[in-house]
Amino acid sequence: MEFWILPACRITVMVMLISSTVQGVADRTQSAYFLPEFALSPQGSFLEDTTEEQYLTYRYDDQSSRTTRSDEDRDTGWDAWGAWSDCSRTCGGGASYSLRRCLNGGNCEGRNIRYRTCSNTDCPPESGDFRAQQCSAHNDIKYHGQTYEWIPVTSDPVSPCALRCQAQARSLVVELAPKVLDGTRCKADSLDMCINGVCQEVGCDRQLGSKAKEDNCGMCAGDSSTCRLVRGQGLPHLSPEEPVKTVFEVPMGSRGLRITAKGPDVIVIEAHAPNNRREEIVFSSPGSHSVANNTVEYQRGAERQTFRCPGPLYANFSIKVKYAGPKDTVMQFMFYQPIRYQWRETDFFPCSVTCGGGYQLNSADCIDIRSNKTVGEQYCHSYPENNKPKPKLKECNMDPCLESDGFKEVMPYDHFQPLPRWEQNPWTSCSVSCGGGTQERSVMCVEEDVHGQVSHVEEWKCTHSPQPISKQDCNTFVCPKWMAMEWSQCTVTCGPGLRYRVVLCVDHRGQHTGGCDPHHKPHIKEDCLVPVACHKPQENQPVEAKLPWLKQAQGLEETKVALEDPTFIPGPWTACSVSCGLGIQRRLVKCKVLLSFTQTEVELPIEECDEEKPPSQRACDSGPCSESPDSLTWPLGSQEIPEQHGYDWEYMGFTACSASCAAGKQMAFVRCVSTSGREIVDDALCSSSRAPLSSFRICNPQPCPARWEVSVWNPCSGSCGVGLQTRSVSCVRPVAGNRTEPASSIDCVESRPPEIQACNQVACPPAWVTESWQQCSHSCGRGSQWRKVYCKQRLATGSYRRLRDEECPGNKPAAHRTCFNSDCLLPRLEGGEWSKCSVTCGKGIQRREPVCRRQTASGQLVTLDRSACGGLSLPPLVRSCRMSPCSRHRYSKKRCPQVMGLNRIYIQTRQEKRLTFTVGGRAYLLPKTSITVKCPVRHFPKAQIRWENNGNELKSSKRLSITKSGALRIYNLDAGDIGVYRCWANQDSEKFVLKLIGHNNRLLEHPDGLEKDDGFHSYLNKEGVKCHEQKGSAKKTSKSDLGWMQKNEFYRDDNGQPKDTLALGKHSAAFVLEPAQFEELVRNITQLAESGDVTDEMASLLISKIMEDLAITEHGTANKELSTTVDNYSNKTPNSSTPSLGKGIKKGSRAKIVRQKLHGNAMSFQRDLRIHVGRTAYLTNATHSLTLMCPTRGSPHPTLSWSKDGAPLQNSERISWDGSGELHLSSPDLRDVGVYGCTASNDFGADSERSHVLMAESPKIAVSRRNTSDLNSRSVKVVVGGSVHVRVGANVTLECPVKAGVPQPTVSWQRKEGPLTTSASTLLNGSLLLRNVTLQDSGIYSCVAANDIGKSVALSLLRVAGSAGESEHQSLNEMNRKRVLMASPIGTSITVKPGDILRIGCPVVPSHRKPITWSYQNKTLKQSPGRSYRILVGGRVLEMNTLGGKFDGRYECQTQTGNQQLTAWVHVLSQDFDWRLGSWSTCSASCGNRGAQVRKVRCVTTDGKEMPPSDCHRLPKPISQPQPCNLLDCPPSWVSTVWSRCSSACGRGFKERRVSCQQVEASGSVRVLPSAACDGTPRPKDRDACSSQACVEWITGSWGKCTGRCLGPALATQSRTVSCHHFTNSTSKTCDAKERPPTTRNCSSELCDVHWKVLPWRTCTAACGSGFQSRRVECVHRQKKKTLPDQQCAWQPRPVTWQHCNITYCGSECQDRTHYCPVVKRLRLCQVDLYRQRCCQTCSQDTSTT
Question: So what's the pLDDT on residue 414?
C-alpha cells in the first residue's frame, strides 16, 4: 500500500487488525473486505476508497459540507460538525457517522465523532443475516491451511460485537475479527447494534440511546391502549363419545399468547390463514414448532403443558383438546387481542389560503387494521379504549401575496388573523321553572378575516378546540311543595274539639316561598277528640264556637283580636321616627288564630291569612320644629312673608339626599325672586331679616341592603398548642336613626365571615400527662391502682409528641397508689335470680326478690336479714323479656338453619401464634399466623357444616382442618391461603375474607390470582330438602354502641353469643372494628401511632391499603359514606389532627341525604322490611311493615318531608314518620304501591331521593293446552304446554310467553333427558329454537320463568317422526338379527325368536384354514333334511333360517387346531313367548306435577295372543318406566287450614281457620292467588260458632281513688277488687291464677306532687376542733306550699339533716394535716384558705421563704 503524506501535516494512522490467524492477507483474491477504522487529524481524515485496490487515500474535508458552528462549539474549541457519512448498510438498520475537528491543538473536551442509525427499513428475506454474510466472507480464506464454511455464533454475552464464527458441522469456533461491521445486531432477538465494536442500545423507534420499548400491543413507546388483555379458564368435559372440543379462539394479530394445561388430554392448534389455508398441529414432543409462520414454544411436564407464542399471529388460532383419558384437563390462557378498528390520522387538508399565511388541519379516520380500509366511525367508538386524536393545526403558504405592482408583504396568519373559533348564542329560557328542564343554544364555527369580518365556515375548521355544548339541564331543583307542621294540642281537655297546624309552601332550599298548587294544600284544621268524659253541663254551642270579641277604642282605630279563622292582627304603632317634622311609624302585622278553649293565640305563616294585609308602615307628622337654626324643621306650606319693594324669598327645591337608604336628609334652599315676574334676582334685593329658616326633610326612608355584622374575637381557648377563637356573625339591615335590625342570612349576598379561627399556634412546653386511675385491684378492702404517666408536648399543629421523661420539668406524678373500698363491707340490697319469662312467645316480664347481703373481709358474700338493709333503695325487681316471635298459626313450623355471622374487620398489628375469629368479617393478618374461624349456627348440626375457599369445597389436610364443631383451622398462613372462605349450613352461609400484610406493609396477592367468591352453591341437609324460610328473618344485627377503643368481640360461642373479647390495648395482636367504626379508626390514628401499637409508616400504609381493598370488594358492604371517610382521611399523616364539629359535619352545611352505596333491589321476605331510600322495595305476603330510612346530615339539622307519587304524605294510623327520618308503613298492600320521595331541607339547601315500592308477584306463563302435529312444514312455531310432533330436519320454536312477574323474571330452558343439544339456542324473547331436529332431540322440554318470589314451569313433549318406541324396537331387533352367537367348548344356551337370523360362530382365529364340520342334534347338517342354512366366513360361521320349521336344538362345530381336536357347541331354544309393553294407563292426576302413567307388561305369543306371565318367567322382564302426564297448572281452588280452638272457654264462642285461593303449578309449587281468582267456586267458611262447658272467669271491679302510696312526682297507686266467678254468678276457685288481672296500677295524683324543702344550716356548735350543725328538712307540696307528713316524700331520698363542721385544730399549733402538702407548695396553692389550713406548716415555710 502507498500513502501520500503532506509534509505540513502530521497524520496518525490506525490500522484495524482483522485476525492474527488469518493467512494470505497479501493475496487479494482471498481477502475479506471490511470498513476500516478511520483516523482523525486537524486538517483531514482517511476515508475508504471504494475501489477494489483497497487503498486508503487521504483527502481534505469539504468545508462546505460542515454545519454552522454553534456558540457552544466556539466556547469549547470545536469546529462545526461535518456532513453525515453514507450508511453502513442499505437495509436492516445501519450506522452513519459525522466528524468534527479540534481547533485548539487537541485539548477539546468531548468526542470528535457521533453516530446515528440509518436505513432502518427491513431487508428482503432472501438477503440473509448480516452477521452470517460477514462470516461467509471468510469461506475462501484458509484457516490453518484449510477452508471452512462459517456460520455465525449469535449468542456471545462476553463479546457480542466480535465476529465469532463456527465451522459448519464442526465444533470449531473462531474469532475471525475483533469487531463486526457497524449496524450488526448485538443479539439476534434485539435491535441493539454494534458501532465501532461497542454494543449500543437502540430503542424500538430505531434511534440510538432510545429507551423506547414495545408495549403489549406491539406499539413502539405505546401505552397498551390498542389491544385488550383476554384471559380465562376452560374445562372441556371430553368423553369417548365427544373426543374433540374447541376451547377458545385467538384472533389474528394477537400477541403474548400463553396457555397452561393441566391434565392428560392432547392439545391441538388449528390455524386459519387469510388465504383460506388451514393448518393443524398436534403437540406431542417439547420444543419449537412452526404454525402458520408463527413459532410456538411447547414444554411438557409430568402433569402440565405450557405453550408460548410471542406473536403477532399471522392467522386465526383455534385451540382444541383431544380426549386422552377419563381425567378432565383444565386450561388457563391469556393473550393480548388487537383492537381491530383504530383511529389513524389523515393527511393535512388543503391550506385555507394560497398566499399570505394560512392554516391547515388534519383529522382521523377509523381503519380496519386487518383490511387496512376506512370504515364508519361507529366501529372505533365501540371500543372504549379508543380515543379519537384531536385535530392538528399548522401554518401554510406563508409567502407574500403577489399584486399587480409587485409583492405586497402580508403578515403571517397566526400573527394577524385569529384562528376559526366556536361562537355560541345565549341560552334559551328553561323549558320548566322547576323539577328539571332543558335549555338550548346554537353553536357555530366562525372565522374572522383580515378586515375583521366574521363569517360562518365549516365545522371541521374549529375541530382544533372542543365544541361547546348546545344543550344542558336547567332548573333541576325540585318544585315548591306543601309541608305540614305538627298538629297543635286539642283545644279542649275533654270531649270533641279542634286542633290546628301550620302548612307552608317550601322550595328546594327549604325556604318559605310561593308557587304551590292551592288545590293540593293540606288542611290546617281538623276535629279532635279527647277520650275523657266532660262532667260539665251540656251547653248549647261547642266551646270553640264562642267568639270572645273584645273591642277597645284606641284613637280612631278598632283593635282587632284573633278569631278561630286565621286573621291579620296588627300591633301598636311605634313612635314617630322624628320629634318634629315628617317621619315614619311602623308596626308588626301577624297572622294569628285563636284556640278558643285555652284562650291562647297561635302565630301562623302570612300565607294562611286570605284577607288583605294591613299596612305595616305609615307617615307621621310631629308638627313644626322650633326656630333654632340647628333644629330639624320641615315647612308645612309656603312661607307667608310680606312683600317688600317687589322682592320676596321663595323656596326653590331641595338638595340631593344625603343617603341612599335608612332615612337621609334633603336641605331646602330659597332664592330671592321678583314678585311681579317671579324671576330670580340677587339675594341682596330681599330683606335678610325676613329670610326663611333653614329646613330639611327626610328622604329615602327604606332600609338599607343587609350586610354582615361581626363582633370582636373572644379570648383564645388555649394558651399554646392550637386554640380556637369564636365571634358572633349576624346578618343585619341598617335602618333610620343609626340603628340596625336583624335580617335573614339569605339577604346577605356577600360571603359569610368566619365565626371561628385558630389561635396561639405555638408549641407548648413539655408537661406531664396522666391518664385516669384504673379500677382498684380489689373490689373490696385494700388494693392497688395504676395509671399511665407520659411526658408529652403539644405542638403548634394540635398534635402531641411523646418525649423522654427527662425532658419534663418537676417530679413525675405517681403511677401507683393504694386504694381502699369500704362500701363493700356495708349491707346492700341486691336482686336475686330472675324468674322465667311470663310468656313463651312475644314480650313478657321477669321478676326477682330483693336480697340483703354483705361481703366479709375474706371476700365471701353473707346473706343477712331484710331488716339490716332498711332504708336502702330497692334494685329493679321487674324487667321486660322478649321471647321468640309468636306464630300466627297454631301449628308449628320447622326452623331453617342460620349462620350467626359477626360483621367485624380485624387488623393484626404484631406477630402472634394463634388468633380466633368468627365468620362474617374481614381479616388483615400477618403471615405465619395460625387462625381458627368459628361458624356459629342455629337449627343445624355442627358436624354437617361445610367450608368453601374461592368457590371450592375444602377438605381437611396437613395445614387445614375442620373441627367437629364446624370451625376452620389454618396453620402458618401463607399467600396461598388468601381468599374468600364461606361457611355453609344447608342454604344459609356467611363468608370470611382473608388478606395478608407483607413485610413492606402492603397487601399480598394470591399467587394464582384467585381471590373471588364464586357465589352461592347451597348444600342440602341429609333429608335433601331445601329450606324456604328466607335468610335474615331472624338474624340479629350487631350493635355498634361500643367504641372501637373499648373491648371488641373476636368471636361468638356455640350459641351465637359473644364469648371472649380482646381489648384494644398495648398487649393486643389485632384491632377489631365494625364498618361503621372505620371512620373513628382513621380519626384516631394519631393515638394508635403514639401508643406504639403501630408505626407511623404502617399506620398510613395500612389504612390506605384497607381503603383500597374495601373500595374494590364491598357490594352491599362498600358505602358512599365510607368512601367519603376514606377521602377525608386517606391523605392525613398519623400525627395530624382535624378539629371536628359534631359528628364530622361542618357548621352551616347544606342538607344532604346520606345515600347508601348499594345496588340492586331490596328483595326480602322479612316480616319487617327496612330499606334505605333510593332502592326499590318489593312487598310480599310476608311483609307486615315497611320502613323507608332517610338518614340526613347538615347544619342546622334538616327537616324531613315525605311524598307519594308527587303528593305530600299525611300521617295516619298506617303511615307515619318521626324525626329520625324513617317512614313507617304498617300492613302494606296494593294501595301502597307507588313512588315515595324524601326531601331534607334547611337554611342552606335541600336534597331529595325517591324509592319505588312495588308489589312482588311470582311469574306466570301463558300455557297452551293444544297439541301440534306437523310432519310437512320446515319450520314449526308453537307455545309451550302441549305435545309437538314434527319431522326430522325441521326447525322448531317453542315460545314461552311470561304474562306476569315482579321483579322481572328470567326465562331458562331445560331438557329432562339431559342437557340441551348443540342445536338448541335461546332467543332474546325467551323462546327456544331447535334447528334441524334429529331423533336425539326428542324429549320433554320445560320452560322455567323464575324470580325471587317463585317460579312457573311449563312443559312440552317433542316427538320427532321415527323416534317412537317402535323405531327403538326395530333398531334393537336389527342389532339382534345381525349379531353372531359364539359357540363354547363347555357349551352355552341362547333363546331365539322365530324369524330372527341365527348366526353361530366357531371359536377359532381368523387365520384358521383347516376344515370345520357343523352338526345339528349330533348329526351333520347334510344328514338333517329340511334345514335351511348357509356357511359363511370360510366355514367359521353358520347361519340358520328360523322361519318355516323347527330350529331349536344343539349345534356343534368340530375342527383341528394344532394337534388337538376342537369341539364347541351351543343349545338354541325357540322363544315362543315374549314380554311386550301394552298401552299407556290413565293419568293419575289431571294437573300439577304429580301425574304419571305406565304401560302394563304382558306375556304374549308371537302372534300377539296374551298368555299367563308364568310362560315368560324364564325371559328377562322389561321394566315399565312411568312417564309424566298432564303437566299443566291446576285451576285455582280454595284451600283451608284446620280449625282453631274455640275463642270462649265458657259458653258459646267462635273458631277460625285460614282460607286462601291457591293454585298448584306444573312445577309442583303452590301459588297463593287473590281471592278473585277463585270466584267461580264457593268459598269455605273461615269462621264458625262453637261452645265450651268450662264457665269461670275473673271479674274485676272499678278502680278506686288515686290515694295510694306515692311512687314518684305526681305518681301514686290505685287498686280494685278481682274475684273468680262462675257463669251462675257464684264464686269459684277454679280460675287460672296466671290470667288473674292486676289489682293495682299507677295513677296520676296531685297529692304526690311533693318535694323535700331544705332550710339553711344552723350555726356550728364549735368554733374550732370538731363540731356539728343541723338543718330542717320538710316534705312540702309544690303547688299548695303546705307541709305534709314525711311519708308522703318517702319515694325520694331524704337530704341529710346534720353534718360535721369546723374540723380544725384549736390553738396556735401549725401542722400539716395531709401528705399532699409538698404538692400544694409546688403548685402555689397556699393562697387558698382550705389548702392553707390543711398545710399550715408547709405554707408557713413557703411564706417565710418568700
Answer: 39
